[in-house]
């Protein structure tokens, strides 16, 4: 199954990104959170723009998985000026070479909604951030997160393309997030 292969093949890059993620730090400030949102936007927006250019099969429900607008909404809610895209001083998002790499990117982006549930609960306690105010990105699918993830996994497991292209896209995406997070002061 492709989902199991992806999890195994991207384990190191995934762990690297999790270790760099400052959002669960008990000392997180609103200013640090805003910096994080800007850095995430600098990765998510260009990757989602590329995904929209690819022939992603309808079974993946791409239009329901796009979250860059939620990052913009969160920045506006927090009265933070949104950055000019792409964000200056930030590493460029990788260029996806085709559908396989696009599906790998979508695997990472969609997988992050699972961790977003934990992050969302922490933000509520630490900064009084809610899904309605400053935390829409981390609450993207709300109670439907598990069902959305399972539907994505089912579609990916049925995909008959090159599995290593999907792995390459996922690792490129994890790398882009790691590069961005290295620039976010904790």
Automatic annotation (TrEMBL):
Signal peptide: none annotated. GO terms for biological process: heme oxidation. InterPro entries: Haem_Oase-like, Haem_Oase-like_multi-hlx. It comes from Deinococcus hopiensis KR-140. This is Heme oxygenase. GO terms for molecular function: heme oxygenase (decyclizing) activity.
